[in-house]
Design brief:
- The protein is built from ten helices and ten strands.
- The protein is an alpha/beta fold and 246 residues long.
- The protein folds into two domains: 163 residues, P-loop containing nucleotide triphosphate hydrolases (Rossmann fold, 3-Layer(aba) Sandwich), CATH 3.40.50.300; 56 residues, no CATH class.
- The strands form two sheets. Strands 6-7-8-3-9-10 form a six-stranded mixed sheet, with helices on both faces.
- The N and C termini lie far apart (39 Å).
- The site of magnesium ion has 3 residues, from α1.
């Protein structure tokens, strides 16, 4: 099986803080992998280093077998990777449709630039299809600011799908979301995974991630302390210690 994502000895520090220390991790094509760890353990930093937001201090990142260490975000995204943010980034005054279209913009491009770059009708159609897919079709023309936190997470998922990425990194997809919507988000992720999308998911909700992930990694103080199935992780002493031992 080929690897969609591979990190070798990934290291990142901020001054004296080692946010990531020689992290080795892989995600096979079509796999759904969870990334766990207490607050401040380096999970979001790992996403930032993979997606080109930060340049790692050491180590290498491979996407679909190609080394992308130090690449710019846009180039990485063109190669098929999409990441969402821990706090959804939506433009509250713009409609859902406009938000999804704008997610296609490059740096400094406006909504109009995006619309004129490619066939606008085809693009709008695709955006509508993705908004429908995440269950927000009835709100296509509503301002994004009227959505709940959970709905904003679904909107981000719709934006993610516009570029048809093969590898999707989700940073706490169910954080701050009510239980009904959590179920919707779970279903959506599983459906996309069955359709072949590869996922690496940061999630604090253990019930959710243990339920959907095929394999899990656990970070603590920037170091990988465990890897395995839900069962392995649940019974791992170092993990229990990291979460409850201090
Ligand atoms: N831009 C930055 N500048 C300085 N320190 C940073 C920066 N980003 C992260 N850190 C530090 O790196 C460490 C890891 O942070 P990170 O945000 O990756 O943790 P996390 O596992 O995502 O935590 P959470 O579960 O709270 O989201 C923390 O000590 C944090 O304070
Ligand atoms: Mg984080």
């Amino acid at each position: 099986m080929s690897q969609a994502l591979k990190l070798t000895d990934l290291t990142k520090h901020f001054g004296g803080v080692y946010a990531l220390q020689k992290v080795n991790l892989y995600v096979n094509e079509g796999e759904l992998v969870g990334l766990l760890g207490p607050n401040g353990s380096g999970k979001t930093t790992l996403f930032n280093c993979v997606a080109g937001f930060y340049r790692p201090d050491d180590g290498r990142v491979f996407l679909k077998g190609k080394e992308i260490t130090g690449w710019k975000m846009e180039k990485i995204s063109e190669l098929g990777l999409y990441r969402t943010f821990q706090l959804p980034r939506v433009f509250p005054e713009l409609t859902l449709l406009q938000n999804v279209l704008l997610s296609q913009s490059h740096r400094n491009e406006s909504l109009l630039d995006v619309m004129f770059r490619k066939s606008p009708e085809a693009m709008v159609k695709r955006a509508e299809t993705h908004i429908d897919f995440v269950g927000l079709g009835h709100l296509t023309h509503a301002p994004a600011g009227s959505l709940s936190g959970g709905q904003q997470k679904l909107l981000e998922l719709a934006s993610a799908l516009m570029k048809d990425p093969e590898v999707i990194l989700l940073d706490e997809p169910t954080g701050g979301v009510n239980p009904t919507l959590i179920n919707e988000i779970k279903k959506m992720i599983l459906k996309l995974n069955s359709a072949g999308k590869t996922f690496l998911i940061i999630e604090h909700n253990m019930d959710v991630i243990m339920d959907i992930a095929q394999r899990l990694y656990v970070l603590d103080y920037g170091e990988l302390i465990a890897e395995g199935s839900s069962e392995d992780i649940r019974n791992n002493d170092r993990v229990l210690d990291a979460y409850f031992g201090r």
